[in-house]
Amino acid sequence: MAAVAHTTVAETRQRTRKPGSALAAVAAYLQALPLLLILGFFLLIPVLMIVVVSFWDYDFAAMYPAFLTSNYTDTLGSWVTWKTYLNTLKFAVIVWAITLFIGFWVAYFLAFHIRTTAMQMVLFLVCTVPFLTSNIIRMISWIPVLGRNGLVNSALVKLGIVPQPIEWLLYSEFAVVLAMVHLNTLFMVTPIFNTLMRIDKSLVEAARDAGASSWQILTNVIIPLAKPGMAIGTIFVVTLVMADFSTVQVMSGGQSASVALMMKNQMGLLQYPAAAANAVVLLVLVLLMVAGILRIVDIRKEL
Amino acid sequence: MHREKRSREFYILAVFFALFVLFLYGPLSAILILSFQGPDGGLTFPLNGVSLHWFANLFEKQAVGDFGGSFERSLTLGLMVMVVNVVVSLLAGLAFRRKFFGATPLFYLAIASLVVPSIIISLGIGVLFQQLGIEPSWYTSAFGAHLTWTLPFGVLIMFAVFNRFSPAYEEAARDLGATSWQTFRYVLLPMIAPSLIGVGLFGFTLSYDEFARTLMTSGTYNTLPLEIYGMTTNVTTPVLYALGTVTTLFSFLVIGGTLGAIVYLNRARVRG
What we know:
Oligomer: heterodimer
Number of helices of chain A: 15
Number of helices of chain B: 10
Helix content of chain B: over 70%
Number of strands of chain B: 0
CATH superfamily of the domain at 66-234 in chain B: MetI-like
CATH topology of the domain at 66-234 in chain B: MetI-like fold
Order of helices and strands of chain A: HHEEHHHHHHHHHHHHH
CATH class of chain A: Mainly Alpha
Helix content of chain A: over 70%
CATH superfamily of chain A: MetI-like
Order of helices and strands of chain B: HHHHHHHHHH
Largest interface: A-B, 96 and 104 residues
Radius of gyration of chain A: 24 Å
Number of strands of chain A: 2
Radius of gyration of chain B: 23 Å
Structural class of chain B: mainly alpha
Largest sheet of chain A: 2 strands, antiparallel
CATH architecture of the domain at 66-234 in chain B: Orthogonal Bundle
Shape of chain B: globular
CATH topology of chain A: MetI-like fold
Distance between the termini of chain B: 31 Å
């Protein structure tokens, strides 16, 4: 596929567009229509619905159309809410930093140290396959490794490194971060690998000929060119961690909280307007973060 | 790149990469082994004998809820999502090749679909169906919820494919007198077929494993991931691992089959 001559988007557009073809314009709309309808009905309207419902009144049985701001003042006036938001942000920052570090070095190894394309693809697939299996199963799979009688603890005890099993390996914030890194690193590897593969190798050679050390090549040539990939990976990881409730619930054993988990509990109690108010706050926060990242990188150019 | 002796950097990074792969697959292999735990064994090592007890346990209906039924539903739903994902992404990809009014907002709507937290979509669709008075079910509301997760991937992949696709082939076909349908069917489609299979694989596996978006939208009957999620809190026997092993092997089978098909198509194209 990659062997097909590269053409810029602009060129492609110009050549495929027959001049004054009204039929072609109609065809484009018809082709885009299914996507618009599905996203319209299952994304746009539900999100608008949430915004509307967040102002409604509710009791234990049902919700009633109204215009109240109490759902917002209740949640934002609570000290627990702020702590939960901070906790979620903390997870996002820690997981982001770790996945960025791992993701960059894995992608760099694949792109610059593996010499044949076939081998690159095989190793990349090795990284990709677990991502296509169930997230919950991958979370559960840490239990026999980290548990009180798990692999890590029994090895540590047997080697005499610790006198008794470490309790905080499982059902702790450590376990949450570990599982999140486990689940989401691929989202960082893929876009960075994609940008690194598109770096013209002659740039690296030129830098070397000009006397740059490996470190200088890395920091002055490769990392600046890899920034768009890092930005896209960051969008994925940050939005996934900000939205997470299952990892926090399963891996912390109920000892930690996240915004989405708080929402899920409210939904379980049928407090939909309260959950909706939290949803709006969370959505605004996530969209602001994404908008901030998008100022650095133009996604459409990077595909 | 020119051949040179492997640097120290290579060996350090190779070890790093190997550790990363171990990190990815290690825990998975732990539950794979533990699912063969003897009838008296527990959730952790050591193995207390080797048996297929927990796999047998899996198929006794009362032991773990409705495994067979939920698997059937997830499979059907995954296939539905796969087909719609391929068709809609391909059409959208074709549309985006032309400039049309509203292309940029639609593109950003697709991106938004990717970044809006799953649980918000789940809540939104759940509330919307409730207000419309429609009973949510896995083949309506959950189906739509899954598409909001799979379509952005499909659209982005098609975007990447068509960005690299030279229109020269289509022009050649047109110059030889092919109609636009013939150009599409005999020139464009065979060339992008491997990518379409990739889009299908994404659609199927993402739907098959999705549960945050199914939480509020599945209605009366659970999909498999919801069933497993429920089990994490109340099942304390290795039957959980047996289920994990079975679904993971199924995922591997699907991935392997798909990659095989892609390789076969690529070979056929090179030969043909």
